[in-house]
Structures are given as C-alpha cells and as structure tokens.
Amino acid sequence: MADMSQSNQDFLNSTLQKLHGSLSVKFQKFVDEQVRAIEETKVKIKKRKGVIHFVRIFPQFSAAVENMLTPADSTLAVRRMVDREYDRILRSMFDSLKVIARESPGASAAAPSLLSAAAHNAADPEDKEALNFHILLIENMNHFLEDVDNPRALEVLADWRAAAQHDLAEHTDLYLGAVMRRPLGRLLEYLENLEAQIQGGKAPAAVAAQPSNSKATFNKVMGAYDAKEVRKGIETLRKRVEKHFGESVDEGPAGAAAAKALVNKVWREAEKYYGDVEMRIGKVTTEVYGGDVLFEWPRGDVKAAFLSAGR
Question: How many domains does one find in the chain?
Fold first, then answer.
C-alpha cells in the first residue's frame, strides 16, 4: 500500500485503503469479542484445575497470525496494530486467570496478594483453596511458556513471556512453601525462628542461650529427621505433587506427557528446596551452635530418595 499511495493509480489506491480500513475494524472487533469472552470466563469456570481454554488457544491464534504476517515489514502499521491487540488480549488473559484462580470466597481470602498468600500458606499449609490458587497459575503459566513461540522476537510476546516466567517462579515458591510444611514442618519452624532472631540483630550466642533454642533442643529436632523419616517424607511429597499436577484433564498422550513434564519440573524445584534447607541447617549449626551438634542432615539419603521417587 505504501508503494501504491505514491503511484497515479488513484482508484486502486482508494480501493485498497478502504479495504485496509474495513479489515482493521473487523480485526479490532474480533479482538473485542475475544477479550469479552476471556473476561466472562471468570464467572463461568466451575472447575479451577488444568489449563484454561483461552491459554490453550492463544498459542494457536498467535502462530496463525504470525504465519500471515511473515512477509510483512516490521515497521508497517499492521505490525503495530497486531502487537497492540496481542497486548490487549494477553493483559486480559493474565488478569482473568488470577480472578479465576481465586474466584471462590476461600481463595479470595487466602490469596489477595503473593505476600499474604505466602503468610496464609505458612499458617495453614493444608488450605486447599490457597494451594489451588498456586496450582492453577503454575499450570497455566507453564503452558504459556511452553507453547507460545516467539521466533520473530516480538517485544510484546517477550514481555508477556517474562511476566509468565515471573509468575511461575513466584507461585512455585509459594506452592513449595505450603506443601513442604507436611514433611518438614517442625524443622522449618525451628529454622525460621532462629533466622528471624538473627536477622533482627540478636547475637547467635544469645539466641542459643534461650531454652527453646538450646543445643539439646536442636539435636532433638534434627534427630527426628533421620534417613527413614526423610525418605518417607519425600515419597509422600512425590505422591502429592503427582496428584496436584499429574492428573491431567486433557485427553490423549499429549496431555499426559505435558502433565508428566510439569510434575518433573516441580519435582526438580522441590529437590532444590531440600538443598536450600540443608544449607540453612549448616549455617545455623555453624553460627549458632559452633558446629558441635549430634546429628547431621542425611544428604545422601535425600539425594537417593529424590532419585528413586522421580523415576
């Protein structure tokens, strides 16, 4: 059209301009309808599990649009228009996802923000509404990252992929912070108490001098996490992760494979969490108790248990 506007083909140029305007209006109306449908999903969804349909459809939609635009110059108005509508659709998707995730009263109270969700999980790790909030967002952000391609390095898609990665990481951390309370609850509470006091400026010796933080108490807590108990906790944790992410609502081998891949991804993060706990134990042992304790964290058994459970 740019070349045509510089020619003397006035009739053809006028026709193309009208056609372009008409198609632009139709595309924007189409996007309006999609955004409205996405926003209405938040009141229609009854089962908050699995990949929401608009998250599943968007990768196919963007791929189809990009296939049509492949020959187009990135500086053309059509490119800017499509990118603008991508942004509008994706903003609606991400906002609606979070509304869907917390649409029941329990979830709304449990997770109005990431920080309050973390606090709520710490207080009540068995709250199913809080867990469902994180599970649904993990599933959907993971699907978005796995299925939305960006071969042309479009800024708008790169920005929303970064947002999805951020949300995935935060909700994975919050999810793990909740489910780890079952196998590691007493140990985590003990470590958090010591760490909070030290971060608050209290001297390690003063912390250790408290009866509730004595070396004997620490040895008792650590003694409860022997190889057998740690293995049992990890095996139970694997079953829970598989229940949360492995029961795919999608039919067919593709859905099952995607669910298994997500289970393994969460499982790798769970193993890292255990590694961080080991480092926290080591730091407390050295700084608060001078390295003189009766029990050590069963590192080898932890590694073996994760390897065995992950098969």
Answer: 2
Q: What angle, 0 to 180 degrees and rounded to 10, lies between the N-to-C axes of helices 227-245 and 299-309?
A: 30
Model confidence pLDDT, tens digit, residues 182-199: 999 999 999 999 999 999
Instruction: Work out the pLDDT band at 26, boundaries 50, 70, 90.
Output: confident
What gap in Å lies between CA 11 and CA 113, rounded to an integer? Answer: 57
Q: How many other C-beta atoms are found inside a 10 Å radius of the C-beta of residue 227?
A: 13
Q: Indicate if 60 and 93 belong to the same structural domain.
A: yes
Q: How far apart are CA 181 and CA 183, in angstroms?
A: 6
- Mark whether 214 and 281 lie in a shared domain: yes
80-97 as b/e: b if 16+ CB within 10 A = eebeebbebbbebbbebb
Please answer whether residues 190 and 218 qualify as being in contact, where contact means their C-beta atoms are separated by less than 8 angstroms.
Answer: yes
Q: Are residues 174 and 190 in the same domain?
A: no
Backbone angles phi, psi at 291, to 5 degrees: 80, 0
Residue 71 token pair: 């020959």
Which residue range forms the structural domain that includes residue 282?
Answer: 185-197+210-309
